[in-house]
Every structure is written in C-alpha cells, then in structure tokens.
Amino acid sequence: MGSSSSSRRNSPRAVGQGGASHWSQSQSFSQAPPWAPSYPPEAGTGYPYQAPYSAPPPPPPTSTYSQPTSTYSQPTPQVTVDPRRRLQRRYSRIADDYKSLDQVTEALARAGLESSNLIVGIDFTKSNEWTGKLSFNRRSLHHLGDVQNPYQHAISIIGRTLSAFDEDNMIPCFGFGDASTHDQEVFSFYPDERPCNGFEEALTRYRELVPHLRLAGPTSFAPIIEMATTIVEQSGGQYHVLLIIADGQVTRSVDLEHGHLSPQEQKTVDAIVKASEYPLSIILVGVGDGPWDMMKEFDDNIPARSFDNFQFVNFTEIMAKNVSQSRKETEFALAALMEIPEQYRATQELKLLGKLMESVRGSSPQRVPLPPPFETYGTSAYSSKPPQFTSFKKSAPPYPSNDVGYDSPSSVAPSSSTWDNHVCPICLSSPKDMAFGCGHQTCCECGQTLQLCPICRSEIQTRIKLY
C-alpha cells in the first residue's frame, strides 16, 4: 500500500531537524522536575545525617568450631541497564500535558515533526444503528443528511488540525466491522488501495460508500492496527498517526470473568503492543452513547509496550459540553493530539524512526485490504459526483416509523432475509435463541444485559429462552 502514495512513503524521513535540539535541551532529564519533592538535611548540619559508628559487641564464647571468616568483602556486582529498556520505562505512560491546541502544535514543531502521515479507520459494526439514541437524536451514527454525523465531524476536525504537518496530503482510509470484513479484515476506500487526497476527499468517498454497506460485527481493532503497521513498515519507518473512529468498545461476552479478555480484546491488545515497536501513534475516538469503560482501561493499562502509543478520546462527552462549537472542536483536537509530541519524541529516542531495526523489519502482519463493498454491488468507484441519497427506496427500518427522519445506511444494501431471520442482530454470529415481550429476538448472550429492544427501542420486561 505504501508504494501507491507519494515518494515520502518510500524513503525514510530525516528527523530531529528544525527545532529538535532545542526540544532536547529544554526537556533535559538530568535535572529534577520542578514538582519533585526535596528533603532538608538534619537540623544543625548542612549534610545528610549519619549515625556515629560503634563497634558491635564481641560474640559469646562457644566451644564449637567455625570456619574463619573472610577479611575482605566481595565487590558489589555491577548491573548493566539496557539504555533502550530505560527509555521504554520512561515512555511507558505519557501524561496529558497541554492546555491549548497552540501548545500542542508548537510542541509538535519543536519535536521536529514534519508530517503527520494520517491513517483513518472507520467502524461499520451493526451497533452504529442504535448507539446514537441519546447522542445523535435516535439516528444511526452513519446517517447521511444536511448535518455532519459524528464520523464526518471527527474526521473534519482532526484533518484540519493535522493538515499543517502533512506534506503530501495523502490519507489511507479503511473500513472494518461490516459484513465483508467482520473482525478479521479491513477494506480500502478504493479498489486500487490508493489513499484519499486530503480529508475532503476522504469525506466525499465516505458518503459514496456508506449507502452500500451492510453493518455487521463483531468489533475488533486488531485488523486496522495491523494494517497501519504494515503501512509504516512499507514506508521505511516514517512516523504515522492512526485515527480509529468507533461507536463502541471491543466485543466482550457478558459471561466472561473479570480479568479475562475476549478473543477480540486479546488480539487488539496484542496488536497495540506490537505496534509500539513502530513509529505509530494510535488515537481511538469514541462516538455515540458508548459504553467506554473498557477503552479507558485500555488507554491506561496496556502492558509491555516500548512506549505509550494509545490514546482514547470520548468525542460524545466533549461535544455535549455547554460551550461554543469552536471551543468544543478545539477541546476535541487537543484531547486527541496532546500526547503526540511525547510519542513522536519517544520514537526518536527509541530509534524507531527511519530505517527500521532488524528485530522488527519484516515482522508486520503484511495485511492486504479487501476491495470496498461499493464495488461488489457494481457501482463505479470513480464516480465524478456522489450518488443521490434521497432517491433510493428504503426497506423496513430498524426502528418504528415514529422516529421521524431516521435512515439506516445499511437499509440500501442488498439484503439476505434468510440470514437476517436466523442470526442475532447484535453480534451477527450467534443464532437467535431469546425473544422479548415485543416479539423481537436476539441471542441469549446479547439479550441478557439489554434494557431496551435494539429493534423497536421498547423497554424489555419479558425474556423467553427459545429452544
């Protein structure tokens, strides 16, 4: 995939220029930080207190023979600390240090960042159809209308912010979680795997694709993270930022004990840890109603990484604040990018930039994206204008008709009624074996914790196990 973008993805970037030395001097680690506690000497002296020496009492006489003790002490063994491991510990948890977007932008420039090399991954799992109930007026989070949906809004803000650091404006864009990829693959926005030319083209292509997608699942971020590490390796080790926008956390069974990971969670954790061996920062933006408790734990507690390469941002929480729209957008960009300066600096000091180390060269999964489902349905990928979204005939909506204005992007995709009638509409993998009082059905695993029916949104008062 890297070969299809501009020349900067094929040759390592010179790093540390234009301000890197100033950053190093101003952030010297030979001095104690200003918040470090200081301990005064003992009263009456200018030096640390030492107790006066007194000889120990002689041992009591004994008639048993003991071996003479040595008159010299063994030298203290010298422990050699691998400088790389010391740096890994130092960057294992990067703090959120900045208060304004200007500070983040200035720090990125001071650290020598020349290009953001943005990669975008979009979540097309089935839960997008109902996780906008509170935050997006009961509409699908992929709803296309006169107002930007949360996915379009997040891409616009990050795209505008990072455009100053993008020298060629090429953005590889991928989708995951739909019926063609599930939790195993990703699809490229274009069949020839070419990147989008700027975030405006990414938004245009998104509008072209959405009406033709069948939302599915389950949710795993491992495929998109592995796709990003493949791009980084193919670029020769240039620094990249992976922006994942998703409506929910990684799929997890309700029966799974606390402290245990689902297969999707384990693969996602493994992919994040492996990605820390590459010059890649991962920003996960949460849109919709959540929940997000597990993603916050991911952000703080993923173990054994070369550096803290993962940042979670709750888009919905920021956009719900009672401040001006421009202020909310600034706060979101700040929250998403505030760790990037230290992460970029970590990739420099850990020598991850440029020519990749022998230990990781060739070790990326070498993922190849699927073609977009758009092509599967016979529509040209190179349409000169977006398709008209008001002319299609809707199939039965997933919510009752009193939800005025609700359009499901998946409603225009070719349907398989037999498949839909027998598979749980939430996980899209288990058979339907639980019915609610309203008549709609899911699998028992998904239905046990639901408070509202995912189809008609009525309160669940009765659950019936089907055999």
From TrEMBL:
GO cellular component, one term: nucleus
Swiss-Prot/TrEMBL keywords: Metal-binding, Zinc, Zinc-finger
Biased composition (Polar residues): 22-31
Domain of life per record: Eukaryota
UniProt-annotated stretches for the region Disordered: 1-85
Keyword Isomerase: no
GO BP of this protein: protein ubiquitination
InterPro entries, A to Z: Copine_C, E3_ligase/Copine_domain, VWF_A, vWFA_dom_sf, Znf_RING, Znf_RING/FYVE/PHD
Sequence ranges of Low complexity compositional bias: 1-13, 63-78
GO molecular function ontology, one term from the record: ubiquitin-protein transferase activity
Record domain RING-type: where: 424-457
PANTHER family, per database record: COPINE FAMILY PROTEIN 1 (PTHR45751), E3 UBIQUITIN-PROTEIN LIGASE RGLG2 (PTHR45751:SF29)
Full protein name: E3 ubiquitin-protein ligase RGLG2
Gene name tied to this protein: RGLG2
